Amino acid sequence: MQHILVLGAGGFIGTHLTDRLKQEGAWVRGADLKRPEFSTSTADEFVTGDLRDQRFCVSLFDRPFDEVYQLAADMGGAGFIFTGENDADIMHNSATISLNVLDCATKAKCRRIFYSSSACIYPERNQEDPDNPDCREHTAYPADPDSEYGWEKLFSERLYQTYARNKNIEVRIARYHNIFGPLGTFEGGREKAPAALCRKAALANDGGSLEIWGDGRQTRSFLYVDECIEGTLRLMRSDISEPLNIGSEEMVSIADLAARIIAISSKSLTVSNKDGPLGVRGRNSNNDLIRAQLGWSPTAPLNDGLRATYDWIESKVVRSDG
Ligand code: NAD
After folding, report:
1. In this predicted structure, what is the pLDDT of residue 10?
2. Where are the beta strands (DSSP E) in the chain?
3. Domain containing 272 — which CATH number?
4. Could you read off the pLDDT of 98-111 as tens digits, one per residue?
5. 44-61 residue pLDDT tens
6. pLDDT (tens digit, 9 = 90+) per residue, 297-309?
7. Does residue 9 have its Cβ closer than 6 Å to ligand 1?
């Protein structure tokens, strides 16, 4: 039986990943600052504690795990990572976690570790044209991410790669592009665009309005969490040691995203625009490398994931409202 450690197991992706690993029959230890907010973890053991604390980290690594998934990070949507107000925490907290985890994983002789990087590492200059962003993996350098969150992810990618070179541990790195789905945070300031728009549409009265940040022409792609987990496991169990995009190539403008969510809500809502933190003008996953390396890439239509996410968020906000 595989023994697997999931760090960040109380978070959105960590919760889904734990479920999938349990379905496959692994023994799973999960660790996080907090338990999952919207479900009960299926991990065999769930340990709460702070991965910035070296002693806590050491206590988790009591065996040479077959696989370690390092998803814990101080993160959020644009309202958290692009305002500048949280930059010191983002850099300090997330870097400290990875420094501690790598040290412990190598000392415990773990064989392989997965690290969740982000599309936010790509240089701003490649993402100024909303219709033609360039996020091919090799364009990450010369580096110029538009946020400190992106710089920290880039530093950590390099940190993991140095451990692979010098410390006898195999490393797999995914650059996730906007993952969404049920069990993801949808309020409180750390939520991302799909969840925020689903919440706003679910709470709006028919005939009311739906607020979006910016002019709505900025573009993104969004990957449903099930395909994120599938890609993560395929990458982890491959021999690809370079960072790979895990994202959707179905790029939409934020105005288009809002229109799709309004259609799903079956309400008549008018879109209104508001100033807000935006990030780059355009971003889309480029899946040439993952297709070539893994013979796989995400294919699920955006609308299917939006429908599932809207239904889940609607059930949450309507219940808490009523
Ligand atoms: P999330 O915020 O839901 O999960 C992260 C978890 O890390 C949280 O449960 C949090 O409590 C935990 N954590 C933070 N600091 C900790 C600490 N000091 N000790 C222990 N646990 C701590 O985020 P997510 O969406 O599940 O993302 C998982 C990973 O994927 C993160 O590293 C994130 O940067 C990366 N990523 C996510 C996306 C996305 O769209 N969701 C995109 C790119 C990259």
Report:
1. 98
2. 3-7, 27-32, 45-48, 67-70, 112-118, 170-176, 179-180, 209-213, 219-220, 223-224, 244-246, 252-253, 270-274
3. 3.90.25.10
4. 999 999 999 999 99
5. 999 999 999 999 999 999
6. 999 999 999 999 9
7. no
User: Which two three-digit tokens encode residue 311?
Assistant: 């239904």
Nearest atom in ligand 1 to the alpha carbon of residue 72 is 7
189-213 pLDDT tens trace: 889 999 999 999 999 999 999 999 9
Q: Are residues 120 and 238 in the same domain?
A: yes
184 CA to centre of ligand 1 in angstroms: 11
For ligand 1, say whether the CB of 33 is within 6 Å of any of its atoms: yes
Query: Which residues form the domain of 267?
Result: 181-221+250-281+300-313
- Give mean pLDDT, residues 272-293: 93
- pTM over 0.90, yes/no: yes
Four-residue CA torsion sign, 225, 227, 231, 236: positive
pLDDT computed for residue 320 by the predictor = 62
User: Can you state the percent helix, strand and coil of the chain, rounding each to 5?
Assistant: 40, 15, 40
222-255 core/surface letters (b: 16 or more CB in 10 A; e: else)? bbbbbbbbbbbbbbbeeebeebbbbbbbbbbbbb
* Same domain (yes/no): 150, 271: no
Q: Is the CB of 8 under 6 A from ligand 1?
A: yes
Can 149 be counted among the known catalytic residues? yes
Q: Is 116 in the pocket of ligand 1 (CB under 6 A)?
A: yes
What is the mean pLDDT of the segment spanning 254-278? 94
Same domain, 98 and 169: yes
* Rounded distance from Cα 32 to ligand 1 centre (Å): 9
Q: Domain count of the chain?
A: 2
294 within domain boundaries: no
